């Protein structure tokens, strides 16, 4: 498993290196402009940094999906499925690599956002005043900064789980295209429809899940987490089913 995961990282090392170099260049440009107190260039570089990092987060998943599709479409790439490694190990290593990379970029985005706001407030006194006002209002509303950070983090994690569930559905649709539907006409379009309607069904089920508390009753982080829990569990179940579904399809229907 670890060797397969390492192989996936090495295979994408060039793209990942470009992504991290781009983040480093934009962040350096922002810090320099901020230190020089150039308002226009600071705003521009900060915007570019946020947009670039956000786009890179989604590019990682698009790249993983594209690579998986190319591997199944290329006969030479089938060699990996002829190794002693099980299909489950191969699929899980691909998804684990994608998840780790996505989480790392998300963590970098959140970390840089916090650092950049702090650095901005240190170099521009007016921003520091706004920051203090936010602290005062949060205290008046009896909302602690730690509680607010936990709330934001919970929603970010919930988004990551939901988004990754969508990614696993795409993996399953691609696997169907190269296994059960390999001899069908317009197999790509059919697999897309399967994913599309599966995603709609998943969202419908998610929207109908019972919430322990109404919006007005969410007065603590605990209650907020309890409301997020049913949707997160559903997404985790979908991920597990999709991973095992891909494994079974590859074991029984993949033509090497």
What does the average pLDDT come to?
A: 80
Please estimate the helix content: over 70%
* Molecular shape: globular
Question: What is the straight-line distance between the termini?
Answer: 22 Å
Number of strands: 0
Rg, Cα atoms, Å:
22 Å
Strand content: under 5%
Number of helices: 8
Order of helices and strands: HHHHHHHH
Low-confidence parts: none
Number of domains: 2
* Alpha-beta content class: mainly alpha
Characterize the largest beta sheet: strand count, sense, and whether it forms a barrel. Answer: none
What does this structure look like?
82% of the residues lie in helices and 0% in strands. It has 256 residues and is mainly α. The chain has 2 domains: 1-142; 143-256, no CATH class. The longest helix has 37 residues, at 87-123. The protein is globular, with a radius of gyration of 22 Å. 19% of the residues are buried.
Topology:
Layout: H1 2-11, H2 13-35, H3 39-73, H4 87-123, H5 125-140, H6 145-178, H7 187-207, H8 221-253
